[in-house]
Each structure stands twice: as structure tokens, then as C-alpha cells.
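Chapter summary example.
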Amino acid sequence: MGVQIQHEIDLVVKQANLVRRYINKGMTYEQVVHEFLQLANTSDLKQNFVVLEKYIKDGYHKDPEQLHQEILDFNGLMEAINNQEKDVDTLKFQQAQQYWNEAQNNLESSSYM
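The structure predicted for these 113 residues follows.
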């Protein structure tokens, strides 16, 4: 079975929430890296884990809000899915966009303590 777009969107939201928990001081960055890569391992997208691990580890030196926004890159996700599956047409893209918009409700918010 191919890539399930909704599953991939859910993974991205979960990964972004890890960074948000770090921003909110609810996790260490080492925990973020570990759980981020565990989530990535459940993806059906073919990924270069050496590059992915370097990206998330190097994220420690970025502004965490910038990293959070980079993870939430809908167009980049859809491009990666289409590059692998070669079947993202207008209808699939629009359905994914709608699901993405709804999935934003599952993003954790900033805590200003």
C-alpha cells in the first residue's frame, strides 16, 4: 500500500508538537530528537535518515519557532509524497489541504509562563 496522506500529515503535526513542547520547556532537545526520529520511522515516505537526523540535531542551533514552521511545510510534504507516489492530482491535493487545515487544531500552543 502506498503513502497515506492523512497519516503523513498526522506525523508532521506530532513532530511539530515535539518542538512546541521543547519551546514550552516540557521536553529536552535530546528527547525531541529521539521522538522525532521514532515518528519519522513510522512514515511510509522514503527518507534518508542520516540527513533527517542531521537536520533535527542541527535544529538545536536554530530559532525554535523557525524550526517549528519548517516542520509544518505542507507544500514540501505534498511534494515529497508526489515525488514518491506520482499520483497527487488536484483533487488529492485539495483533500489533503482540507485535512491539513483541520489537523492544525491538533497543534499544541505556546505556554507563556
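To summarize the output: The mean pLDDT is 96.
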